[in-house]
Backbone:
């Protein structure tokens, strides 16, 4: 069976991913840039502002809000150290109390606050999160540089998490062996694979663990 051709920005079947966070990945970034095939100009550099909803009770559902849209992905499995995530729900603001009750708060795995309205604006939802003792709304700014190596979608990103600057590096594909080959060529073998959810928890003090090269 022929493997799926990866295309940056295109929707594919669920991908596996290697990602890490630290203070510096300069050497791996240089190799990534040199090994990359040409990629579309639109992914040379991209910036976005997002809000991640972090729950002290949850490590398997990753929730972010960008441009007024909520995106929740759920952890599926780890194979050869690589994580696979699937979309769980997508929503827009204003958002209904029914969606909050049936899909959003169950993903956070915390007690749901009393819902007194039929719909909630973005600001009302964020206030609800900030007033919850086990939730945090975390501002994340991303400056991402896109590449492609061994038919895997790669990036290096400068990330501000509530103003704290870290660097992330990743490789993702539907094909596990292509990612493993890329990790080896970039000199990242043995570097911890963690996702945004885990990294943010470490930075805001919800988890005591350090990042990859601190």
Residues:
């Amino acid at each position: 069976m022929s493997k799926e051709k990866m295309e940056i920005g295109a929707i594919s079947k669920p991908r596996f991913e290697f990602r890490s966070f630290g203070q510096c990945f300069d050497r791996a970034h240089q190799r990534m840039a040199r090994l990359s095939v040409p990629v579309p100009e639109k992914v040379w550099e991209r910036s976005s502002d997002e809000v991640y909803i972090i729950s002290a009770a949850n490590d398997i559902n990753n929730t972010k809000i960008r441009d007024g849209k909520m995106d929740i992905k759920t952890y599926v499995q780890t194979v050869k150290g690589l994580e696979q995530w699937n979309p769980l729900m997508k929503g827009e603001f204003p958002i209904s109390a029914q969606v909050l009750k049936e899909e959003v708060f169950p993903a956070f795995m915390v007690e749901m606050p009393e819902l007194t309205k039929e719909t909630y604006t973005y600001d009302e939802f964020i206030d609800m999160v900030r007033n919850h003792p086990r939730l945090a709304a975390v501002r994340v700014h991303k400056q991402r540089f896109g590449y492609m190596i061994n038919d895997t979608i790669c990036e290096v990103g400068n990330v501000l998490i509530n103003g704290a600057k870290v660097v992330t590096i990743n490789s993702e594909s539907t094909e596990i062996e292509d990612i493993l080959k890329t990790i080896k060529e970039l000199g990242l073998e043995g570097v911890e694979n963690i996702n945004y959810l885990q990294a943010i928890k470490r930075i805001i003090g919800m988890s005591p663990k350090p990042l990859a090269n601190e």
About this structure: Helices lie at 26-35, 97-108, 122-130, 176-185, 196-203. The first strand starts at residue 16 and ends at 22. DSSP finds five helices and ten strands in the chain. Residues 97-108 form the longest helix (12 residues).
